[in-house]
Write a structure and sequence with these properties.
By secondary structure, the protein is an all-alpha fold. The chain starts with a helix and ends with a helix. The relative contact order is 0.21.
Length: 386
């Protein structure tokens, strides 16, 4: 049963890609959004048996770990120098926006119990770096399990709503509100494909002439994953704690970028589409874990707190970027990196049809990972002592 579930998850994105080439309404929605919506239907309607939840969780972990280096292999590091300043400035604005709003909400909701301070701390940590920072903030502030679980559950729901908005209405909206810039979307033709590369055409992955390139990309990605897991275990052993997903993401990103410096690795152009297919599987799997039962048990105060921090923070972040002249694509990938964490950056870059946006988004996301725990714990300690 579990093997059948895994096969279904792996093949469904191929079906959606096929439909996108034959039905205009699927193409207009987009493959990413279609996978996300289909997964949410599975989760909210309770169509997946209990044992399938474990399969979905495992697939979401494995696919994103393999996809990240594959997406980075064919990128040109020189593109980063063109947007480095704007991306870092946009990250600073994102962090400032959520910190200000979380602090404001603390003063509105504080009641002497410390709950508001904990919510503010977790909001800043998770929406400047990512979900892995929550565990560190919980430990650092000794946050009760009930508060932590309520926040974590709602974070998944609010994050899903935010991400669907960014992938659909957000793209035309923010490109209209913020200045544009020349975008690099071209990839060289796949070796042996005999045709110009089309990022929406995944047929080259099935051609025997490209098997050598695909095999080399997968093998190199597995080496990167193995080395990253080793680094994660070594760091955990040195600090005497558990392996950190944040360290794993940092290692995967760093090694993937280092590999891309070699021209023969950059020539593995099909690695990008292979990585994107794994992202589609990840999108389907992670969205299928949304539970209707968890939605019905959420605390309204926590919901208001997070909705304001995420969506008012998005508006404030946009305003600051407009005043500073930051372009729309840079704003969107850095926002997704901060709110959704680096693994979601490739999905946003694909919705933008701008592969060059992956590198600044991933880099600022990694910086956010490093800052999120410190900012969250520091703010929480300060607010508790007021």
């Amino acid at each position: 049963m579990q093997a059948l579930t895994a096969i279904i998850f792996l093949l469904l994105p191929a079906g959606i890609i096929y439909l996108s080439h034959h039905h205009n309404w699927v193409r207009r929605i987009g493959v990413i959004v279609s996978c996300y919506l289909l997964g949410m239907v599975f989760g909210l309607a309770g169509l997946l048996p209990e044992q399938a939840q474990g399969v979905a969780r495992s697939l979401s972990e494995v696919t994103i770990v393999l996809a990240l280096p594959l997406l980075l292999f064919s990128l040109d590091l020189r593109q980063w120098s063109r947007v480095a300043g704007r991306a870092l400035l946009s990250l600073l604005f994102a962090v400032a926006a959520v910190t200000c709003l979380a602090t404001l909400l603390y003063f509105i909701y504080r009641d002497g119990s410390g709950v508001a301070a904990n919510l503010a701390a977790m909001s800043v940590g998770v929406y400047s770096g990512g979900t892995p920072n929550l565990a560190a903030i919980k430990a650092g502030l000794d946050i009760p399990n009930a508060q932590y679980l309520a926040f974590h559950s709602l974070d998944a729901v609010v994050g899903s709503v935010y991400f669907l908005f960014m992938l659909t209405l957000g793209v035309p909206l923010f490109r209209a509100l913020l200045p544009g810039k020349p975008r690099s979307t071209a990839h060289p033709a796949p070796q042996g494909a005999g045709e110009q590369a089309d990022e929406d055409d995944y047929r080259p992955l099935l051609k025997t002439a490209n098997l050598l390139q695909i095999g080399a990309a997968i093998l190199l990605a597995l080496v990167v994953v193995g080395l990253s897991l080793a680094v994660t275990e070594i760091v955990a052993w040195l600090v005497g704690g558990k392996p950190s997903s944040a360290i794993l993401i940092v290692s995967l990103t760093t090694l993937g970028i280092l590999c891309s410096l070699h021209p023969r690795v950059r020539a593995l152009v099909l690695s990008y589409r292979l990585g994107m297919y794994l992202i589609y599987v990840f999108c389907l799997a992670v969205s299928s874990m949304v539970s209707l039962g968890e939605l019905l048990q959420l605390d309204a105060t926590v919901a208001i707190f997070l909705l304001v921090v995420v969506f008012a923070g998005l508006a404030l972040h946009c305003l600051l970027c407009r005043l500073a002249g930051v372009d729309g694509d840079t704003f969107m990938v850095t926002s997704v990196a901060a709110v959704g964490s680096p693994p979601f950056v490739p999905l946003m870059a694909r919705a933008l049809n701008n592969p060059a946006a992956i590198l600044p988004g991933m880099t600022t996301g990694v910086i956010g990972y490093a800052l999120g725990s410190y900012l969250g714990i520091s703010l929480g300690l300060y607010l508790h002592n007021l």
